[in-house]
Design brief:
The chain is an alpha/beta fold. It folds into two domains: 66 residues, S-adenosyl-L-methionine-dependent methyltransferases (Single Sheet), CATH 2.20.130; 171 residues, 3-Layer(aba) Sandwich (Rossmann fold), CATH 3.40.50.150. Strands 6-5-4-7-8-14-13 form a seven-stranded mixed β-sheet, sandwiched between helices. Helix 2 crosses helix 3. The radius of gyration is 18 Å and the shape is globular. It holds the Pfam family Methyltransf_25.
Length: 261
């Protein structure tokens, strides 16, 4: 049996020609239940106030079910989102009926009117898959911003990934227990890393499991800055949404604040 994962949708593939399709986009919010969306949104709004053009048009790339967008709208922004997963966009529209949502690839997206702030949370910039697509994503974000606009995202440094480190949390939902586990893996060379994911769903002592090694782009922070700097003024912060500190050059996670040149 093979398991594939694409932007919140798990496909459980049997060896036969009959594929058992399971859309787990409905469990996406459970998978991210330990994330403080409000803290992340508040931090990026503060960064936009410090570095940006003070405009209120916001676009969230790889927006999922829209929790970050909800907080931006509630604090006065006009926010929109895009993602490759239509079921999650359907949920995002229910959560944020004021927003416009677009089924697009963040590596080659276009907008009708430019934005003041573009965000990409939850390390989703790595969904670009390879350095060529990552470069295209950066160019698309640059083209979609107003003068002085900000592109803000978080990233992981490939050379500082601990392949043995995982995060795990358990959530009760509709009579079942869900155990979610995720961690990064990097072989030590090239521009490919994996996001290792697993879900266990236990109902009445019966457990179903989904596993995936999802391919992501691997990039060092120096490589990332080289890709960004032709288009943006780049400032790198520690990955701490509660307080703003400059990146100390040794931690493997960081927040990138990129102001359009």
């Amino acid at each position: 049996m093979r398991h594939l994962f694409h932007f919140g949708v798990f496909y459980v593939i049997t060896p036969s020609s009959n594929a058992l399709y399971t859309d787990l986009s409905g469990y996406y919010d459970l998978m991210c239940a330990d994330i403080n969306y409000q803290s992340q949104s508040d931090c990026v709004r503060r960064l936009h106030q410090l570095f940006g053009n003070q405009g209120k048009r916001h676009l969230d790339l790889a927006c999922g079910t829209g929790p970050h967008i909800r907080y931006f709208i509630d604090t006065g922004f006009s926010s929109d989102g895009l993602d490759l997963n239509q079921p999650m966009l359907d949920q995002a529209k229910l959560r944020c009926p004021e927003a416009q949502f677009s089924l697009q690839n963040m590596c080659e997206f276009v907008v009708d009117a430019p934005y003041d702030l573009i965000t990409c949370f939850l390390y989703s910039i790595h969904y670009s898959g390879n350095l060529e697509n990552l470069s295209a994503c950066i160019r698309s974000a640059h083209a979609a911003l107003k003068p002085g606009g900000v592109f803000c995202f978080n990233a992981v440094e490939k050379n500082l990934i601990n392949n043995n480190s995982f995060v795990r949390h358990i959530v009760q939902h509709e009579g079942s227990e869900f155990a979610f586990k995720s961690g990064w893996f990097y072989s030590g060379e090239g521009d490919k890393q994996a996001l290792k994911l697993s879900i266990e769903k236990t109902t009445d002592k019966m457990t179903e499991e989904w596993h995936d090694d999802h391919p992501m782009v691997a990039v060092s922070f120096n490589e990332l800055k080289d890709l960004l700097e032709p288009y943006f003024e780049v400032t790198v912060f520690e990955h701490d949404y509660e307080k703003l500190e400059m990146w100390n050059t040794t931690s493997g996670n960081a927040i990138f604040v990129c102001v359009k040149r």
